[in-house]
Design goal:
Length: about 350
């Protein structure tokens, strides 16, 4: 369904947003790009959906070349962008019918399809309300439906649930799983590791314009090579100093079975074959080394741990994501989100 080779995008001004990526997506697959803000996710999706011109490389979508057959590509895909652009004065249903007309459905067909989609997403109750009165979650959902009006076989979603409350997020996840089962190929981008883990059959982990790993979520997590023991050192009153952290790292790396030890926000993250049996030994050696341990927890690796191992960074440092920051900035500057 998608074939991309050596894709490069350099923006005017010189930012290299995508530095030569290769990937392919099969028909019916649920594929994801997982990466932090600025990784190049939106840029990649915009090129695939013909909204943006690439600098070099080849991109085929639904069998068509994006440069030569842009119109055909656009007819084959649906695209819900990261920035939702809805007309606040139109009703949800009017918006969908208009989308249908833009895709050259007849008025009758558009209305029928709009009703069907609203029903499937459980938004029928709000169909005749103005979009301006919708919550953030409802706006995202109606925008998503707009991308599906012409029954595309391929759907692009750019961070479909960033900034949404957990309930709206779950509703969207369920819906996406359903339409993927019905045969729609889905490519989404996200910086939410649970989203990638729960939805995607295959993932590309992307950082500063480069794919650093690719595989199923289970395969990627297995790459971490063991469990993760998270050890908080120091106390609330006396935070661990850099010296203490370095010492702890030295002690931990020397223990048998330890694959790696890194420090993140005052916690030592230790990758070890069997976390449960290693934890007491790790704790004892720290205490014997004169380091105070205030908390210890063992967990199976997450995609965050995969990202950390590959790049030395966390995917994101908070739970609300860049979008919340963006809207806070916009509110501060007196700008309205479109
Ligand atoms: P993501 O969607 O993963 O957060 P983007 O694709 O939006 O990342 O951005 C990738 C890089 O390209 C970033 O460094 C960003 O600042 C830059 N960038 C994005 N859009 C533009 C633009 N229109 N002009 C110049 N630079 C851009
Ligand atoms: Mg983006």
């Amino acid at each position: 369904m998608i074939e991309v080779s050596d894709l490069v995008k350099v923006y005017p001004g010189g930012t290299k947003a995508v530095s030569g990526i290769n990937f392919a997506v099969r028909e019916g697959e649920f594929f994801g790009f997982l990466g932090p803000n600025g990784a190049g996710k939106s840029t990649t999706l915009k090129i695939l959906s013909t909204l943006l011109k690439k600098t070099s490389g080849t991109v085929k979508v639904a069998g068509y070349d994006v440069d030569h057959d842009g119109m055909r590509v656009r007819q084959s895909i649906g695209f819900a962008m990261q920035e939702v652009g809805l007309d606040d004065l139109a009703t949800g249903k009017d918006f969908l019918v208009l989308q249908g007309l833009l895709y050259k459905l007849s008025e009758h067909e558009s209305k029928k399809r709009a009703n069907e989609l609203l029903e499937m997403m459980e938004l029928t109750y709000a169909a005749n309300r103005k979009v301006g009165t919708y919550s953030g979650g409802m706006r995202r959902r109606i925008d998503l439906l707009g991308a599906l009006i012409h029954r595309p076989k391929l759907l692009f979603l750019d961070e479909p649930t960033t900034g949404l409350d957990p309930q709206s997020r779950l509703a969207i996840w369920d819906y996406l799983k359903r339409i993927n089962k019905d045969g729609v190929t889905i490519v989404l981008t996200t910086q939410i590791m649970e989203e990638a883990d729960r939805l995607c059959e295959r993932l590309a982990i992307i950082d500063v314009g480069t794919i650093v790993a690719e595989g199923s979520p289970d395969m990627l997590k297995a790459q971490v090579g063991g469990d993760v023991v998270s050890i908080t050192i120091g106390t609330a009153a006396a935070h661990a100093t850099d010296e203490m952290k370095a010492k702890a790292k030295g002690i931990l790396t020397a223990r048998p079975g330890v694959i790696s030890a890194t420090e993140q926000n005052g916690a030592m993250l230790v990758t070890v074959k069997d976390g449960g049996s290693a934890a007491p030994d790790l704790m004892r050696s720290l205490i014997e080394g004169g380091i105070h341990v205030s908390n210890i927890a063992v967990s199976e690796p997450t995609l965050d741990d995969v990202f950390l191992k590959l790049t030395g960074k966390k995917i994101r440092s908070d739970s609300t994501g860049g979008d919340a920051m963006d809207s806070a900035m916009r509110a501060f500057m007196g700008l309205k989100k479109r």
